[in-house]
User: Which sequence fits this backbone?
């Protein structure tokens, strides 16, 4: 809600240039919210890839190729 408040009150200034109508402000808010969600999902993928329990031999082992396939599949889902 804080992001929407910033968009709604700052109008056509700074990052929110062109947001003069309520519809354009709402669209900008949705865009920022989607971007934040995507950033969080990408951070999660990075943490998954860097987790040592998947790179060491054992029950949770994932080969480099399998890890690459998982990451590419998840990134494709993000940009759909």
Assistant:
């Amino acid at each position: 809600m804080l992001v929407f408040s910033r968009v709604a009150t700052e109008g056509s200034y700074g990052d929110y240039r062109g947001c003069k109508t309520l519809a354009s402000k709402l669209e900008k808010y949705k865009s920022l919210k989607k971007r934040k969600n995507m950033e969080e999902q990408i951070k999660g993928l990075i943490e998954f890839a860097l987790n040592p329990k998947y790179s060491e031999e054992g029950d949770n082992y994932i080969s480099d190729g399998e890890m690459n396939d998982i990451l590419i599949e998840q990134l494709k889902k993000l940009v759909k």
User: Anything to note?
Assistant: The chain is about 70% helix and 0% strand. The mean pLDDT is 79. The helical segments are 2-10, 22-50, 64-79.
